[in-house]
From TrEMBL:
<protein>
    <recommendedName>
        <fullName>Sarcalumenin</fullName>
    </recommendedName>
</protein>
<dbReference type="Pfam" id="PF00350">
    <property type="entry name" value="Dynamin_N"/>
</dbReference>
<dbReference type="GO" id="GO:0033018">
    <property type="term" value="C:sarcoplasmic reticulum lumen"/>
</dbReference>
<keyword id="KW-0472">Membrane</keyword>
<keyword id="KW-0732">Signal</keyword>
<dbReference type="InterPro" id="IPR030381">
    <property type="entry name" value="G_DYNAMIN_dom"/>
</dbReference>
<dbReference type="InterPro" id="IPR051943">
    <property type="entry name" value="TRAFAC_Dynamin-like_GTPase"/>
</dbReference>
<dbReference type="GO" id="GO:0005525">
    <property type="term" value="F:GTP binding"/>
</dbReference>
<dbReference type="GO" id="GO:0033017">
    <property type="term" value="C:sarcoplasmic reticulum membrane"/>
</dbReference>
<dbReference type="InterPro" id="IPR045063">
    <property type="entry name" value="Dynamin_N"/>
</dbReference>
<keyword id="KW-0703">Sarcoplasmic reticulum</keyword>
<dbReference type="InterPro" id="IPR027417">
    <property type="entry name" value="P-loop_NTPase"/>
</dbReference>
<feature type="domain" description="Dynamin-type G">
    <location>
        <begin position="1"/>
        <end position="210"/>
    </location>
</feature>
<keyword id="KW-0325">Glycoprotein</keyword>
């Protein structure tokens, strides 16, 4: 949730279980059979804000939902703090997510520093983001259109991609829709959201492989750039040179030494995949250039070369694996009988 005030204060993990059951965070982290033990590194204050709920629902056999605390855009509350590293915890869940929903309340729409930080963490995962404008029936049509436009205007600087994330407009809450609202539209949006979720579940393995390949491409580019920085440093060093000053010149103006252009000229790297030059000032400020070895020195007779291995994975192994998984699948067929997305349109969040 994003808004002026947070709507929830806990990380709630909704997962499958034989019966309805609530599990405390300290129990989840201590249970070796679960995958939450790494969360202990964020401290006891965080574990007290972690709750697990087991629900005997068929959909949860295939997917787990994590509801994060609301974004705090209230400066006084930000100053008091949460008592644990909120952004680091969010990053832990982001790294393991197949789909990321960012939910906005149209009556408390606010885009501030904490939301900006969250979207910086989501950079590179734009295809996994879905925007939900909830409680849409609480506004008149004209006001809803204004809020919808304002939301896009506010998010545009935060999501710098050609195709913006899909926005779902509805009211996902256990109440009757307000009278004189667009009920048919809201119901269609609900069905679309469930079909979207189902499609991600069906394509989960393919998405994982594609993401691994995307990450491998970034690792390859990073390795090539570090190698080029290091080679340039070695070429410029003399017996009388001050190593720190020499490398500072290279980092401050890499274009003068053709660092990035040389990568584009000698490899199959897209210029659109090159990272920000400024990022390497911070990177080498933490990691001294002298702590690295040239890629040509990262080879062995038995093990081969690291760069060749990652090139092979990117160009052959991962695409072959992706193709083999898709061979037995029927295109454009959603198994809604499994997840329930093909039911007669109704508001599943409305109390009976």
């Amino acid at each position: 949730w994003a808004g002026a005030e947070p709507t929830t204060s806990e990380f709630t993990v909704i997962m499958h279980g034989p019966k309805l059951k609530t599990i405390e965070g300290i129990v989840m982290a201590a249970d070796s059979a679960r995958s939450f033990s790494p969360l202990e590194k964020f401290g006891q204050n965080f574990l007290e804000k972690l709750i697990g709920i087991e629900v005997p629902h068929k959909l949860l056999e295939r997917v787990t939902f994590v509801d994060t605390p609301g974004i705090i855009e209230n400066r006084k509350q930000q100053e008091r703090g949460r008592g644990y590293p909120f952004n680091d915890v969010c990053q832990w869940f982001i790294d393991r997510a197949d789909l990321i929903f960012v939910v906005f309340d149209p009556t408390k729409l606010d885009v501030g520093l904490e939301l900006e930080m969250l979207f910086r963490q989501l950079k590179g995962r734009e295809s996994q983001i879905r925007i939900i404008l909830n409680k849409a029936d609480s506004l008149a049509t004209q006001e809803l259109m204004r809020v919808y436009g304002a939301l896009f205007w506010s998010l545009a600087p935060l999501i710098n991609v050609t195709e913006p994330p899909r926005v779902y407009v509805s009211s996902f809450w256990p109440h009757e829709y307000h009278p004189d609202t667009h009920k048919e539209l809201f119901l269609k949006e609900e069905i679309s959201l469930l079909e979207d979720l189902n499609q991600v579940i069906e394509n989960r393995m393919e998405n994982k492989i594609a993401f691994i390949r995307q990450h491998a491409i970034r690792v390859r580019i990073h390795a090539l750039l570090v190698d080029r920085y290091l080679q340039t440093y070695k070429d410029k060093m003399t017996f009388f040179s001050d190593g720190e000053l020499v490398f500072r010149d290279i980092v401050e103006d890499p274009d003068r030494f053709f660092i990035f252009k040389s990568i584009l000229a000698k490899t199959n790297v897209s210029k659109f995949d090159l990272p920000n030059r400024e990022a390497y000032k911070d990177f080498f400020g933490i990691n001294p250039i002298t702590s690295f070895k040239l890629l040509s020195q990262q080879c062995s007779y038995m093990g081969g070369c690291f760069l060749e291995k990652i090139e092979k994975a990117i160009t052959r192994e991962l695409p072959d694996l992706l193709g083999s998984i898709g061979l037995g699948k029927k295109p454009n067929v959603l198994s809604c009988d499994v997840t329930g997305c093909g039911e007669t349109p109704k508001n599943r969040y409305r109390k009976p």
